[in-house]
């Protein structure tokens, strides 16, 4: 399955039992809710997926399980976030063996690689897998920016196809389009800039709050795509206080609380993360409760 870099692709949370094991039953419940809403792909093992706490075998189990659940309806991607080039290559090859159809790749972790090192890292992985790659460009959180000049070199690898654009600079969408046209597909990666990025030409949305609100997220995408901007804006304005839960150091706990509220998740996180408590918890619950009270009636967005 070739990947069409478009639409909404949830960066799904990883579900855990109270005994800190993978909760594949609740995970399947959430994945099916995403599919029923009409998402265009599934992204595993990102920040929201608590990737840094997962063992290699858990990542592989999640990949294989998700591939079975989606049954070729949409592509399954897994995040590669490694400290060494060697391990990144191995992760890519394991993902391919387990049935993933694409990779989301971060620059090297921990070590702040320079531009030459970062380009070589991505190219080495690309040259050792047949899977299509989406480069995750998030200098705000990870300290390394993949510049347009670096993409000039990276795009010599045919399977580097897309960027998860998380620089927080909306004009970067236009810069990428001006320089690369359709050669580099753009998936916006910041929930609070999603509609703005789509309207500026981004091809799709790697989303966070979609984990709890899949139908609303897909509706925004489909409405704007159909030119129904006013209708998309109405939902997006309702959604924004919830979307802001994604741009927070406790985004995993925030979004898992939202999943509980919408009946498609649990609050369990893996240590060192802990569930929210006290005033912080009450503040997040208040935002979620207000969102649910004012939840919009959606149009039949699937028929647009």
Task: Write up this protein.
- One of its GO terms (molecular function) is 1-pyrroline-4-hydroxy-2-carboxylate deaminase activity.
- Belongs to the DapA family.
- This protein is 44% helix and 12% strand.
- The chain has 304 residues and is an alpha/beta fold.
- The chain has an eight-stranded parallel sheet with strand order 1-8-7-6-5-4-3-2.
- Strand 7 (185-188), helix 8 and strand 8 (204-207) form a beta-alpha-beta unit.
- Helix 4 runs parallel beside helix 6.
- The two termini are 25 Å apart.
- The model has no long low-confidence stretch (mean pLDDT 97).
Domain unit count: 1
Biggest sheet, spatial arrangement of strands: 1-8-7-6-5-4-3-2
CATH class reads Alpha Beta
Low-confidence stretches: none
CATH superfamily: Aldolase class I
CATH architecture verdict: Alpha-Beta Barrel
| Strand portion | 5-15%
Looking at the structure, what is the overall shape?
globular
Number of helical runs?
12
- The total beta strand count reads 8
The topology string of helices and strands comes to EHEHEHEHEHHEHEHEHHHH
What assembly state would you assign to the polypeptide chains in this entry? single chain
CA radius of gyration: 18 Å
Q: What is the CA-CA span between the terminal residues?
A: 25 Å
Q: Averaged pLDDT, please?
A: 97
Major sheet description: 8 strands, parallel
| Helix percentage range | 40-55%
Which helices and strands, and how do they pair?
Blueprint: E1 7-10, H1 24-37, E2 42-44, H2 56-70, E3 76-80, H3 85-97, E4 102-105, H4 115-126, E5 133-137, H5 139-142, H6 148-154, E6 160-165, H7 171-180, E7 185-188, H8 194-199, E8 204-207, H9 214-225, H10 229-243, H11 251-261, H12 278-293
Helix pairs in contact: 1-2, 1-9, 3-4, 4-6, 9-10, 11-12
EC number: 3.5.4.22
Protein name: 1-pyrroline-4-hydroxy-2-carboxylate deaminase
GO molecular function: 1-pyrroline-4-hydroxy-2-carboxylate deaminase activity
